[in-house]
Write a structure and sequence with these properties.
Blueprint lengths: L6 E3 L7 E5 L9 H25 L12 H4 L6 H22 L7 E2 L2 H14 L3 H8 L4 H8 L4 H8 L9 E4 L6 E3 L4 E2 H40 L1 H6 L20 H18 L4 H19 L1
Antiparallel strand pairs: 1-2, 2-3, 4-5, 4-6
């Protein structure tokens, strides 16, 4: 178990940001371990679900039924397929446990601290605007002063620096995260951008980066396996031994393909996108369901 140590830091006019280990979603297993095991659990449940639909011919009118001739082109039995799929998930779990060995729980702070940090960044965004305006012959300071009466927010953006506006500024309550009145803190616009960044934009960007990494890596490695005849014959051909895929056989492949095409892509995505264990749970679950849906 990780020790309950804390890390803290402070900034000028900022709330004290205290970081503590994040409590796990389930008390009997860490989020790091759960993020590793969850895709396998989801794969087993989703694969079994679609397999039962196949066995009992449920929703038959919504399926494309392969002909008997096509079924004969399968060179792998269901049992052989299942053995390879189990091997894949054992590899995935072992590699995940190895890479996460010694990882401490994520350190998290309160929402007010995150919003304050994001608002500080939002405040600096307009800083280059006066230089740009002055470069093209527009007096940014004069324009900012002339527009302040009609739009304080626009004046702040044009001016490129904060100007106190009593009726449109708010401060953050360090204990509750609520917004309270102040005369010398962030504008409504800065706080809105900060909240939007913390709650929506940053996680969306992380998921987008992870998706691009996985999709790009799998596309080009898969394409390489088809273009290079040696790779296709020695490695990728195993995946195509199943002409009509079984529901649970989505990851049926040679162990080298499983390692370098599938598992490595998600390792790279998690690192480059800096996904937290809980974000990895969501991303891995969605990717697993999509993979099964593409092959069932």
């Amino acid at each position: 178990m990780a020790s309950k140590t804390t890390a803290s830091f402070s900034a000028s006019s900022s709330p004290l940001c205290v970081l503590v280990p994040q409590e796990p979603l389930l008390p009997w297993i860490s989020d790091n371990i759960l993020a590793i095991l969850l895709p396998t659990v989801v794969y087993a449940v989703a694969g079994a679900f679609f397999h039962l639909l196949d066995v009992y011919e449920l929703f038959g009118s919504y399926r494309i039924h392969p002909s008997q001739e096509e079924l004969k082109r399968n060179h792998v039995t269901r049992w052989q397929c299942l053995q390879t799929v189990v091997r894949y998930h054992v590899m995935q779990i072992v590699i995940g446990l190895f890479l996460s060995y010694g990882n401490e729980p994520p350190m998290v702070g309160d929402q007010a601290c995150k919003i304050h940090q994001a608002a500080t960044v939002a405040r600096s965004i307009p800083n280059p605007i006066p230089m740009i305006l002055n470069t093209i012959g527009i007096d940014a300071r004069q324009l900012s002063q002339s527009t302040r009466a009609s739009s304080a927010t626009l004046a702040h953006i044009i001016g490129g620096k904060y100007q106190p506006i009593t009726n449109t500024v708010r401060a953050l309550n360090n204990t509750s995260g609520d917004i309270v009145s102040s005369s010398n803190e962030f504008t409504d616009l800065e706080l809105t951008l900060a909240k939007l960044s913390v709650t929506i934009l940053t996680p969306m960007l992380q998921y987008l980066i992870a998706l691009i990494v996985v999709d790009t890596w799998i596309y080009f490695t898969h394409r390489l396996c088809h273009v290079n005849r040696t790779l296709y014959r020695l490695v990728h051909a195993q995946h195509h031994r199943i002409y009509v895929p079984y529901a649970y056989g989505a990851v049926y492949a040679h162990w080298l393909e499983s390692l370098f095409l599938d598992i490595l892509s998600f390792v790279l995505a998690g690192e480059l996108a800096q996904l937290s264990p809980r974000q990895s749970m969501l991303f891995g679950t969605a990717a697993t369901i999509k993979t099964i849906g593409d092959h069932c």
